[in-house]
């Protein structure tokens, strides 16, 4: 069976949302106590021994990505920052009674996504 033109135009797999992926790394970073980062750091592919733990290396890379996202979240205004914290489950309360949470969250996400698209560590995730 030949594929129809509409089917061929669609990608064969679903791309994950880059914002959601980066926010997941950030949430992991925020919930990490910092003791499991290790002093060795990540090794380059040529430096790794045969018995390397790929899962641990990926976790370290995700934590470092979360650290980069954290720097951008911290550069937001306090309302935007609090909205991002609440949307990701870091905080549960909304401290700003004069502002609508949904409106502030929309603006905060737009602002944060602009920063993520511009930052050297995270811009490769966006098409």
- The tally of beta strands, per DSSP, is 0
Oligomer: single chain
Strand/helix succession: HHHHH
Q: What best-fitting shape do the alpha-carbon axes yield?
A: globular
**Mean pLDDT score, rounded?**
82
Residue windows where pLDDT falls under 50 for at least 5 positions: 41-45
Radius of gyration over C-alpha positions, nearest whole angstrom: 19 Å
Helix content: 40-55%
The SS-based structural class is mainly alpha
Termini separation comes to: 31 Å
Question: Strand fraction band?
Answer: under 5%
Largest sheet: none
Number of helical elements: 5
Secondary structure layout plus pairing:
Blueprint: H1 5-9, H2 18-31, H3 54-74, H4 78-87, H5 101-118
Q: Describe it for me?
A:
There is one protein chain. The longest helix has 21 residues, at 54-74. The protein has helices at residues 5-9, 18-31, 54-74, 78-87, 101-118. It has five helices and no strands. α2 (18-31) crosses α3 and α4 (78-87) packs across α5. It starts with a helix and ends in a 9-residue tail after the last helix. By secondary structure, the chain is an all-alpha fold. The chain is globular and about 50 Å long.
